[in-house]
Amino acid sequence: MALPAGQAQAATITAPGDLNPGDTYYYVFVTSTTTKATSSNRADYDAVVQSAATASTFGGGDLTTINGQAVNWGTLASIKDGTSAADEFNPSAPIYLLDNTRIANRGADLYNSSIASRLKIDENGTLNPNKRVWTGSDTDGAEYQDSDGLKSLGNGYAMAGFTTATNYQWMSAVITESSNSYSLYAFSSELQAPAAVPEPTTATGLIGGLMTMLMGRRRRRTKA
Question: Quick check: 32 and 101 in contact, CB under 8 A?
């Protein structure tokens, strides 16, 4: 059935198999689109990642709704406005790529200098060829600062990470001019693993058996 004009198709993504029904979790991806790091307004970067999520076709629809749950996407980066990556995203639940590869057990694991897998899958579920990603962050998720000052997004120079790395360089690899255009890391709002389909109860099974028996009796009477 065709959707009404302007109505997006929701994504259907099987929840990670290592979760129990009701467990909470988060998704992350790297944008296939790029942007400069010249803005000191977090909303500008959030608009980029939200736009990428909306344009996604992964799971048969866009990523603003996943398995019936509304999802907002934010930017995993430290900005000149004073908001750091760790301030914005530090959950106590596990974090996954869109293919359900777990990269961290919780937010603290993101900021301990390594992750379990490369954060290289984009909003369409494909490997992103872009190596550099704007983060503006040190390995602990705080604004990066050196002897020349802050290197968060919105400054003349900013820190970028590498999608090819699982060590500290995934977040903090190279300082470069903010006028360059790189990808962004995106993180989802909290998701919940769906409840398991309940098994038929004994009462339901008994009722079904009685109905089958009654139908059988009626058929025999009709034949007689």
Answer: no
Confirm whether 206 is domain-assigned: no
Query: Which structural domain range is residue 139 located in?
Result: 13-199
204 in a structural domain:
no
| DSSP assignments along 64-98, one per residue | EEETTEE--EEE-S-BTTS--HHHH---SS-EE-T
Q: Convert the pLDDT of each residue in 59-88 to its tens digit.
A: 888 999 998 999 999 999 999 999 999 999
Counting DSSP H helices and E strands in the chain, the numbers are: 4, 14
The structural domain count of the chain equals 1
Q: Give a yes or no: residue 55 inside a domain.
A: yes
Identify the residue whose tokens are 């970028």: 160
pTM: 0.83
CATH number of the CATH domain containing 78: 3.10.100.10
Q: Is residue 215 part of a domain?
A: no
Q: Report pLDDT digits (tens) over 117-156.
A: 999 999 999 999 889 999 999 999 999 999 999 999 999 9
Pairing mode, strands 183-188 and 24-30: antiparallel
